[in-house]
UniProtKB/TrEMBL annotation:
Interacts with IFT46. One of its GO terms (biological process) is determination of left/right symmetry. Coiled coil: none annotated. This is Dynein assembly factor with WD repeat domains 1. Residues 1-17 form the signal peptide.
Length: 430
């Protein structure tokens, strides 16, 4: 048996959301057939004892023989070096764009961060070049507010826009051409998502339904019915096999993407749902609610495994890190919290904002957290200690949307006026 080892520095493409999992890949030959096996290093940090880690790997994996241990150590040290590169980043304001003639509704980056999109009350979506700030396209055709927008990441060649005019449109990033207009909802579309394979787009509406649309044909595939109030949160899980919808009816529903069948309903919250999504291996679902709690659910059977408490006001956003080990929550009480998905205990509390926090996300490396607040600032935090590392100032209105790019070196922030701010990070001393 011949074994080759190489370093995985790129993402394992598990979802349409950005995923940055590090590990080593084993490539070996058995009975004349080339095979591969991956060893995830999800807990690797810059301070991990490499010798002890390699000893653990050798005990569990017979392919890693003593003669290859030095090579494995070298590869893991390279991964550590890459992690260290991202630990000293400081963000600098790069561009301020007056994007629309009316207030913005949303902003989104493509995977690399090379371009981004903005939705607006002016009924358009605009496509921008991040580095130059040049407007690439204005996507016109909606007859009301463009509220929900998304790239089909990781591909990034298509954009979906959902509007208060009850339609969703599919566009070409390269040309700005509209491929399809999806019609069928009877009320405003307020959330949408591409599946990871970029074959479907799902839309959630104030008409209490979600719909699945075929990207190639432009035809409706399924209508997901069962909620008794507006759907305001929608996402595919990372495999693309299931869709998660959150509603004002206090429940979350999980659906099969290939049949449209409801798998189960998550019942337990006593107020409107604000967010609902799965972790990277599709084993857990986290839901945030206006009842001031988050709930953690077993995705295999729909059973609640924990209620995450501590906030004094509504939960406005929640998310997993990219390994599924940590959960972050953002609240109208002006604080954010980080919980362990394993112990369900609060690890740290993020305090410093002077207004409600409407948006929270981890960077792809999982060591930093980004928050956007009504106090007109975004902040970057250490995910383990809760220390505020940087305050991103300059907005003149509340920040309602903010996001990292795939590498974690670009942040985009959008405020309730007409401006978007782009922040780049550089190594300190670079």
């Amino acid at each position: 048996m011949v074994c080759f080892i190489f370093l995985v520095l790129q993402c394992l493409r598990l979802s349409s959301s950005w995923c940055h999992l590090q590990g080593i890949m084993l490539e070996y030959e058995k009975s004349g057939e080339l095979r591969t096996k991956s060893i995830d290093l999800l807990n690797l940090s810059s301070s991990t004892d490499v010798n002890a880690l390699v000893e653990e790997i050798q005990k569990a994996e017979p392919l890693i023989t003593a003669s290859r241990s030095d090579l494995v150590k070298l590869l893991i040290q390279r991964l550590q070096d890459k992690l260290r590169q991202h630990s000293n980043h400081k963000f600098y304001l790069f561009k301020v764009l007056r994007a629309h003639i009316l207030p913005l509704t949303n902003v989104a980056l493509n995977k690399s961060g090379s371009c981004f999109i903005t939705g607006s009350y002016d009924r358009t979506c605009k496509v921008w070049d991040t580095a130059s700030g040049e407007e690439l396209h204005t996507l016109e055709g909606h007859r009301n507010v463009v509220y929900a927008i998304a790239f089909n990441n990781p591909y990034g060649d298509k954009i979906a826009t959902g509007s208060f005019d009850k339609t969703c449109k599919l566009w070409s990033v390269e040309t700005g051409k509209c491929y399809h207009t999806f019609r069928g909802h009877t009320a405003e579309i307020v959330c949408l998502s591409f599946n990871p394979q970029s074959t479907l787009v799902a839309t959630g509406s104030m008409d209490t339904t979600a719909k699945l649309w075929d990207i190639q044909s432009g035809e409706e595939v399924f209508t997901l019915t069962g909620h008794s109030a507006e759907i305001i949160s929608l996402s595919f899980n990372t495999s693309g096999k299931r869709i998660i919808t959150g509603s004002f009816d206090h429940t979350v529903a999980v659906w099969e993407a290939d049949t449209g069948r409801k798998v189960y309903t998550l019942i337990g919250h006593c107020a409107e749902i604000s967010s609902a999504l799965s972790n990277w291996d599709c084993s857990l679902i986290v839901t945030g609610s206006m009842d001031k709690t988050c709930m953690l659910w077993d995705a295999t059977n729909g059973k609640c495994v924990a209620t995450l408490t501590g906030h004094d006001d509504e939960i406005l956003d929640s998310c997993f890190d990219y390994t599924g080990k940590l959960i972050a929550t953002a609240s109208a009480d002006g604080t954010a919290r980080v919980f362990s998905a394993a112990t369900r205990k609060c690890i740290t509390k993020l305090e410093g904002h002077e207004g409600e926090i409407s948006k929270i996300s981890f960077n792809p490396q999982g060591n930093h957290i980004l928050t956007g607040s009504a106090d007109k600032t975004a902040r970057i935090w250490d995910a383990q200690t809760g220390q505020c590392l940087q305050v991103l100032e300059g907005h003149t209105d509340e920040i309602f949307s903010c996001a990292f790019n795939y590498k974690g070196n670009i942040i985009i922030t959008g405020m309730g006026e007409r401006n978007t701010y782009t922040w780049f990070s550089f190594l300190v001393g670079y």
